Amino acid sequence: MPRLLFAALLLIPAAAFAQNPASVDSIYADLARPGHPGCAVAVVRDGEIVHERGYGTAHLEHAVPITPATIFYAGSVSKQFTAAAVARAAGDGRISLDDDVRRWVPELPDFGARITIRHLVHHTSGIRDYLALRGLAGHPPDGVFGDDEVLEILGRQRAPNFPAGERYLYSNSGYWLMGQIIERATGMSLREYGDSVFFKPLGMTQTHFADDHAEVVAGRAQAYELAGARRWRISMPNFDVNGAGGLHTTVGDLAKWDGMFYDTTAATAAFVRGLHQRGVLTSGDTIDYAFGLTVDRYRGLPRVSHGGAYGGYRAHLLRFPDQRLAVLQLCNAANADPGTRALRVAATYLEREFTEPAPRQAAARNTTTPPGPRLTNAQMSDLAGRYTSAELRAEVVISVRGDSLVVRLGGRDVAMQPVGADEFTVPRMGAVRFTRDAAGQVTAFSVGAGRATGIVYEKQSASPIS
User: Fold this and answer.
1) Are 407 and 413 in contact (CB under 8 A)?
2) 308 burial via Cβ count (<10 Å: 0-12, 13-18, 19+)
3) What is the pLDDT of residue 366?
4) Cβ-count burial of 370 within 10 angstroms (0-12 exposed, 13-18 middle, 19+ buried)?
5) Please, are residues 425 and 417 in contact by the beta-carbon 8 Å criterion?
6) Facing residues of 302 across strands?
7) 10-residue block means of pLDDT along the chain (466 residues)?
8) Which of 52, 64, 140, 240 falls 20 to 30 Å from 345 in CA-CA distance?
9) 387-to-88, 153, 156, 461 alpha-carbon distances in Å
10) pTM value?
11) pLDDT for position 236
């Protein structure tokens, strides 16, 4: 080999030979075509960006391509920044992770047991998710709302999903509350505090927490979801809240954030170790959720990750800390599936380092709901009526439509699928169970919608059969 060529090769980082760039490109080939939204991707190894590219279109109307400099809404990838802000405020003595949340947000109801900031961090607070509550109240997911509405709806809750610390249940409310606590404890908004303690010091010049959905963000991708086989529709977040989400950033700025996790300075290293501290339940069991990060193992290697999704935006941050490899993705297509793509990208670098085979893909499950009991018109008429929920400040009307029972939600009728005596499943509401008094008269129904359970709607009047 000629001496000059050999010397030149020595200057190229070894990580650059870890994979063929074309193999990463192939993972995004379905997005990298005209008229299709897609993703910006950065792969960081040993502190260097070894692959950085945009695939697809940032703005379909104007055919603007996605580049590594494109700004995206990061969804719940934001949570690790909110958690880091809380950890920083605790380290500075402004708050304690063991503070009762009501010390800082006294507008919350007293549920009879102490809920701490630490419970919020690890999703073990039991506080109902405000997005689920809004959905149960019939509000559309793309509606405009702000902090006052979130605080009001949380203040009306009469019970949590479960006692704090008893179990893990993901709750956007907890992280929204953490943003409020930062504001009340520091005198700065989460946007201002994040900029002061993280974004400016790390040189993340294209990153901010959004607090105005109508703000013009130069270079931001518009988000889309499919409406039919080949037709896209705009699907943007329209709320003015952050903490659970709200972060706008680029893959280049996320690479700078990733670099902090390998800083060997004593103070930063201790801070980073704290961010990986997983939650512990009252039973003593340790969960995988740390400070806005899931800490677990994949194919035998330690893994740190978190995804994000709202509207048509999708995001995923994946890190294999022992191998110093991170895959950073920000997307504007609701069907992008960045979590699966990130693992495929990581495999192009780490296939020889994994100590376990790839998990087998689970066989598709039969999701067809078996037919429930067939109800008579008299039975359905007994359940029909107007119901109201004080906790949601909402009203729904249940009616008989032909041979079906339907509930009016968000301006449209949704069929109720019977599964048992006085029990139904309803899209957007989950499990619905009617209750009766001693005389057998229907008095109410309760709903359990995953992240918000036990909501009661009380019957106010009967509804005629239509």
Assistant:
1) yes
2) buried
3) 63
4) exposed
5) yes
6) 297
7) 39 47 91 95 96 97 97 98 98 98 97 96 97 87 89 96 97 98 97 98 97 94 90 93 96 98 95 98 98 98 98 98 98 97 97 93 67 87 94 92 88 89 88 95 90 93 65
8) 64
9) 46, 18, 17, 7
10) 0.91
11) 95
pLDDT, residue 3, reads 44
Q: What angle do CA 273, 278, 281 make, to 5 degrees?
A: 150
Determine which helix (DSSP H) or strand (DSSP E) holds 423, and give its type and residue range: strand 423-426
Q: Three-state secondary structure along 333-399?
A: ECCCCHHHHHHHHHHHHHCCCCCCCCCCCCCCCCCCCCCCCCCCHHHHHHHCEEEEECCCCEEEEEE
What local confidence, expressed as pLDDT, does residue 346 receive? 97
Residue type, 461: S
Residue 8: what residue type? A
Taking a C-beta distance cutoff of 8 angstroms, is the pair 387, 458 a contact?
yes
Task: Please choose, from the candidates 80, 24, 21, 53, the residue with its C-alpha nearest in 3D space to the C-alpha of residue 250.
Answer: 53
Length of the chain: 466
- Residue whose entry in the numeric block shows the structure tokens 């927490």: 209
How far lies 415's CA from each of 206, 378, 402, 406, 458, in Å? 45, 17, 11, 4, 20
Query: Among all chains, which residue has been given the structure tokens 């010397």?
Result: 7
Report pLDDT for 22: 76
Strand duo 48-55 + 442-448: pairing: unpaired
Token pair, residue 59, equals 């703005």
Q: Which amino acid is at 182?
A: I
| Closest to 176 (Cα-Cα) out of 292, 91, 273 | 292
Q: Is 192 left (phi over 0), alpha (psi -120 to 50) or beta?
A: alpha
